[in-house]
Amino acid sequence: MKVLVVDNHEDTLTRLDQALRRAGHQAVLARHCESAESLLAEGRFEALVINIVVPELSGVEIVRSMRRERRSLRIVAMSGEEIGYPAIMGLKAAQALGADAVLYQPFSDETLMEALQPI
Predict the structure, then answer these.
(1) Burial environment of residue 10 by CB neighbours within 10 A (0 to 12, 13 to 18, 19 or more)
(2) Tally of domains in the chain
(3) CATH number at residue 111
(4) Radius of gyration for the chain, computed over Cα atoms and rounded to the nearest angstrom
(5) pTM as predicted
(6) How do residues 4-41 score in pLDDT, each as one tens digit?
(7) CA distances to 12, 61, 86 from 94, in Å
(8) CB atoms closer than 10 angstroms to residue 26
(9) Rounded to an integer, what distance in angstroms lies between the CA atom of residue 24 and that of residue 72?
(10) In 3D, which of 73, 82, 9 has the Cα closest to residue 39?
């Protein structure tokens, strides 16, 4: 499975990249939503794993647009507590807008792999 991972934290990108590759998936990493939008427009991805709190553009907006444009894309929204932004609110918004799964950080590699599986 080709998975686009979007997060502004380098350590999270590295950890998820390693976990996905160990599980046999191809990971493509993006630190910004603008990069993610370009990659999604160019490449063929089966899944998107996105931190909903990233600079420049809300990950929730990416979830909304991708759900409208690419119904078959598996979307996993993730978030941990950020100053001034309670994660649970953003995760609920992402789920309401069409995320297939939401993960509260930190989460295990096994939890991520389960979230990527189609129902």
Answers:
(1) exposed
(2) 1
(3) 3.40.50.2300
(4) 13
(5) 0.92
(6) 999 989 999 999 999 999 999 999 999 887 788 889 88
(7) 19, 8, 13
(8) 12
(9) 20
(10) 73
H, E, C per residue of the chain? CEEEEECCCHHHHHHHHHHHHHCCCEEEEECCHHHHHHHHHHCCCCEEEEECCCCCCCHHHHHHHHHHHCCCCEEEEEECCECCECHHHHHHHHHHCCCCEEEECCCCHHHHHHHHCCC
Q: How far apart are CA 76 and CA 49, in angstroms?
A: 5
Domain hosting 33: range is: 2-116
